[in-house]
Specification:
InterPro entries: DNA-bd_dom_put_sf, MerR-type_HTH_dom, MerR_fam, Methyltransf_11, SAM-dependent_MTases_sf. The protein is an alpha/beta fold. The protein starts with 6 loop residues before the first helix and ends with a strand. It binds S-adenosylmethionine. The site of S-adenosylmethionine has 19 residues, from helix 10.
Length: 348
C-alpha cells in the first residue's frame, strides 16, 4: 500500500517550502489528491517520486514548462530535444560568463595598475570588446539549413551535383586528413572533429580505435552520424562555442565545415580551437579555400555566374588571412592544395 503524506511532511522530506509545492501544483506539474473531509492535499509515493524528479530537473536549470513536457512525454526524442536545448543554453552561459570573468579580471588589473585618468576609458573599452565578441558568437546562424540536408547529404556528396564539383576529391581529402592525423607524433591522441556531419571522417578513426568525439551545430546531422556509428560520442556544438574545457584535445580535425564562418567568425573560431587544444596540439582542416584574395580574383575570372554564386553563398577562407590569425597565437600554418578549391591546412 502506498504511503500518504501531507504537504508539511513533503516539504520536510525535500527541505523546501510548502509554497514551492503549491506552485508546482498550480503549474500542473503535480496533482495530489484531496482529502474528502477537509480538502487537505494528500501525497502518495508516486507524487513523491515525481516531486523529486521535478526538483532534480530544476537543479540543472530546466524551466517549469519544459519539465512539464518531459513528465508528459518520456519518449527518447523528447528527452533528446530538451537535454540538447539545455546543453546549448548551459554552454552559451559558460562561454558568456567565462568572457565576463576574463573582462572583469582585466578591468581589475587596470584599476590596480593604470594611472587614474585612463581608467574609465579602459574599463568601458574592455567591456565593449567582450560584448562584441559575445554578440558575434550568439549571432552565428545556420543559413544553409543543415538539419534539412542531413538525410540526403551522403548521397549528394556521391552525386556531387553542384556547379563547382567541390566533392570530386571528397574521399581523398578525408583520407589525407586522417593520414596526417595518425602520422602525428602524438601517442593515443584524444581527437575532436568539428562539423562532424554524417560521420564520414570520424568513421575512419573509429574503425581504428582512436578516441574521438564529434560536435556539430545540426541535431539532425548528429542523429544521422549516431545512427551510422552508434559507438560515436556526439555533442551539439559550434566552432564559436566549443562545448569543452581548455586544453582537452590533442588534435582537432574538420572537413567541409570551416567555410560556414565569415572572417571575423573564423578568427574567433581559431581562438576557440586553440583554447581547447593541449599545448603542442594539432589542427588539421580540409576545406574550401583560396591562397589569397588575389588568387580568388584570378580563379573567379575563369568561372561561370552559377559557379561564382555558389562560392559567394559561403565563406571560402583566404589562407594568407588564416596564417596571420594563427601567427597571433605563435602558430605556423602549413597547407597543401588538393584542387582548385580544396586545401588541407595543418597547424602545429
Ligand atoms: C558540408 S557538411 C560537412 C560534413 C562532414 N564534415 C563531411 O566532411 O562530410 C558541413 C557540416 O558542418 C556543420 N557546421 C556548419 N557550420 C558549423 C559551425 N559553425 N559549428 C559546427 N558545425 C558547423 C554543419 O552542420 C554540417 O554538418
Amino acid at each position: 500500500m502506498s504511503n500518504v503524506y501531507n504537504i508539511n511532511e513533503v516539504a520536510k522530506i525535500f527541505n523546501i517550502t510548502t509554497n514551492k509545492i503549491r506552485y508546482y501544483e498550480k503549474k500542473g506539474l503535480i496533482e495530489p489528491l484531496r482529502d474528502i473531509d477537509n480538502e487537505y492535499r494528500k501525497f502518495n509515493d508516486e507524487d513523491i517520486i515525481k516531486l523529486q524528479s521535478i526538483l532534480l530537473y530544476r537543479s540543472i536549470g530546466l524551466s517549469i514548462k519544459h519539465i512539464k513536457d518531459i513528465l508528459n512525454n518520456s519518449s527518447n526524442n523528447n528527452y533528446l530535444n530538451h537535454f540538447n536545448n539545455q546543453y546549448e543554453i548551459v554552454n552559451s552561459e559558460i562561454h558568456k560568463l567565462t568572457d565576463i570573468r576574463k573582462s572583469i579580471g582585466k578591468i581589475l588589473d587596470n584599476i590596480y595598475e593604470a594611472d587614474d585618468c585612463s581608467i574609465d576609458n579602459n574599463i568601458l573599452h574592455i567591456i565593449k570588446h567582450a560584448d562584441e565578441l559575445n554578440k558575434i558568437r550568439d549571432n552565428w546562424k545556420d543559413k544553409w539549413d543543415f538539419d534539412n540536408w542531413a538525410t540526403s547529404y551522403d548521397n549528394d556528396v556521391l552525386e556531387d551535383r553542384g556547379a563547382l564539383k567541390i566533392y570530386k576529391n571528397y574521399n581523398l581529402i578525408l583520407d589525407n586528413v586522417y593520414k596526417l592525423t595518425i602520422d602525428s607524433e602524438i601517442n593515443n591522441p584524444y581527437i575532436l572533429e568539428i562539423g562532424v556531419g554524417t560521420g564520414n571522417l570520424v568513421s575512419k578513426f573509429l574503425n581504428n580505435d582512436f578516441a574521438i568525439v564529434g560536435i556539430d551545430q545540426s541535431r539532425k546531422m548528429l542523429n544521422v552520424a549516431k545512427q551510422k556509428y552508434p559507438q560515436l560520442k556526439v555533442r551539439l556544438g559550434e566552432f564559436l562555442k566549443i562545448p569543452y574545457n581548455d586544453k582537452c584535445f590533442d588534435i582537432i580535425v574538420s572537413t567541409y565545415a570551416f567555410h560556414h564562418l565569415n572572417s571575423m567568425e573564423k578568427s574567433i573560431a581559431i581562438g576557440e580551437m586553440i583554447r581547447v587544444l593541449k599545448d603542442n596540439g594539432k589542427i588539421i582542416i580540409g576545406d574550401l579555400m583560396f591562397e589569397s584574395k588575389e588568387d580568388e580574383e584570378r580563379i573567379l575570372k575563369g568561372l561561370s555566374m552559377e559557379q561564382i554564386e555558389e562560392i559567394n553563398d559561403e565563406y571560402y577562407s583566404h589562407i594568407d588571412f588564416l596564417q596571420d590569425e594563427f601567427k597571433k597565437f605563435n602558430k605556423i600554418l602549413k597547407y597543401t592544395r588538393v584542387d582548385n578549391f580544396n586545401y588541407i591546412i595543418e597547424m602545429k
